[in-house]
Design a protein that fits this description.
This protein has 427 residues and is of the alpha/beta class. The protein is built from 13 helices and 20 strands. Helix 3 packs parallel to helix 6. The chain is globular, with a radius of gyration of 22 Å.
Length: 427
């Protein structure tokens, strides 16, 4: 049995796409287990950039089976657009599997997302407005439409009729906006059904079969631990569980089959949208990190909030996910800094906190505790081995490992697949 899992340890945008892409070279199967097209990431291969939203990163390899698992919510229009974009760049889409149990994002989900954010005003969550949350809400309310339903014209037509009657009343009576036309939506989505039918499969069974056969199976995380619905900085979280446990439920593969859980840590910290961020730097440091790191959302284009690395966050994520290794990314972004700070914990009312607080009020009031380390003041993107890294850079990543109590596995020194230093073979 050979499995591996890639998990984000912060608030997303850690560089998971690159790490998954690198590990996918050795994998036979890559499984996306949760989230939707709110989870954009960019992979760079031979200086060619690929922006992925729904498709697993393994899609860039023609010989890899790529699975969109049961825990994912799928916008068929976005998926087909992404497939077309890949094929136009010469990427062969031949071994894609979409779970029959994945839920379908409908146009009314997107509109509910938009209208809810308007009504919330200053209390808005900062959603990507892609309908992700409302789709998961329908799933929990047991009125959702699954891919399997979409494949059956009669079943889909009836479920759409019931849903649209309810949703249109909501739009007209509550939001004060126009509803949707049933026939138009029915025709549109049956068209999508015909186009994706060739990929649809019961992936709960195929995923477990691949593991049983001894194939190298890579579980690709979307978003990150601090955006987990149950364990993150609620309510400023996503609507699914981007933790190791969520990968199990979202793929249909049991926890005893999970090995080599890799936590991706950006060498500094970023966050999109509202919510507490104790290590945030609203100053020249934050601007430097944003501009040097090109910290703008893949999906939304929104500027990310930036700050020093917060190991209190990463250590918490390490506990939640039983991390085996760290993958440090974007280390090269710190090349020009004279000194670098690491947040090692928080003080609240003068006392050092021993646990990551659930209370947002507490998080908004904590005082970050910093360690200061010297920068390396040279460019590291051409380093091919760990020994080639400047001593200051090695000490920095080793300190991250010490503070989080997780061994180093991978150090990334640039966006390209080749700019990756492996300290431990994951597969």
């Amino acid at each position: 049995m050979a499995t591996a899992m890639v998990i984000g340890t912060q608030w997303g945008d850690e560089g998971k796409g690159k790490i998954v892409d690198y590990l996918a070279q050795k994998a036979d199967v890559v499984i996306r287990s949760q989230g939707g097209n709110n989870a954009g990431h960019t992979v760079v291969v031979d200086d060619k950039s690929f922006a992925l939203r729904l498709l697993p990163s393994g899609i860039l390899f023609a010989d890899k089976t790529c699975i969109i698992g049961s825990g994912v919510v799928v916008n068929p229009a976005v998926l087909l657009e992404e497939i077309e974009g890949m094929t136009s760049k010469g990427v062969q889409i031949s071994k894609l599997e979409i779970s029959t149990r994945a839920h379908v994002i409908m146009p009314y989900h997107i509109r509910i997302d938009e209208e809810d954010e308007k009504l919330k005003g200053d209390a808005k969550i900062g959603t990507t407005k892609n309908g992700i949350g409302p789709c998961y809400a329908d799933k929990v309310n047991r009125v959702g439409i699954r891919i399997d339903d979409l494949m059956d014209e009669k079943v889909f037509a009836e479920k759409l009729r019931v849903n649209l009657e309810l949703k249109n009343r909501l739009f007209e009576k509550y939001y004060g906006c126009e509803g949707f036309d049933y026939d138009t939506m029915l025709k549109e989505y049956l068209g999508y059904a015909d186009q994706i039918r060739q990929y649809v499969k019961d992936t709960n069974y195929s995923a477990n079969l691949y593991v049983k056969e001894g194939k190298k199976v890579l579980f690709e995380g979307a978003q990150a631990a601090m955006l987990d619905l149950d364990h993150g900085t609620y309510p400023f979280v996503t609507s699914s569980n981007p933790t190791a446990g969520g990968a199990c439920t979202g793929s249909g593969v049991g926890p005893r089959r999970m090995e080599n859980i890799v936590g991706v840590v950006k060498a500094y910290t970023t966050r999109v949208g509202a919510g507490p961020f104790p290590a945030e730097q609203n100053n020249e440091v934050g601007e430097y990190l944003r501009n040097t790191g090109h910290e703008f959302g893949t999906v939304t284009g929104r500027p990310r909030r930036c700050g020093w690395l917060d190991t209190a966050v990463v250590k918490y994520a390490a506990m939640l996910n039983s991390l085996d290794y760290l993958a440090i990314t974007r280390l090269d972004i710190l090349d020009d800094l004279d000194t670098i700070k690491i947040c090692t914990g928080y003080k609240y009312q003068g006392e050092l906190l021993k646990e990551y607080p659930a209370s947002l009020d507490v998080l908004e009031q904590v005082e970050p505790v910093y360690e200061e380390m010297p920068g390396w003041k040279c460019h590291i993107s051409d380093c091919k081995t760990y020994e080639e890294l400047p001593e200051a850079a090695r000490k920095y990543v080793e300190r991250i490992s010490e503070l989080t109590e997780v061994p180093l596995g991978i150090v990334s020194v640039g966006p390209n697949r080749s700019q990756t230093i492996i300290l431990h073979d994951i597969f």
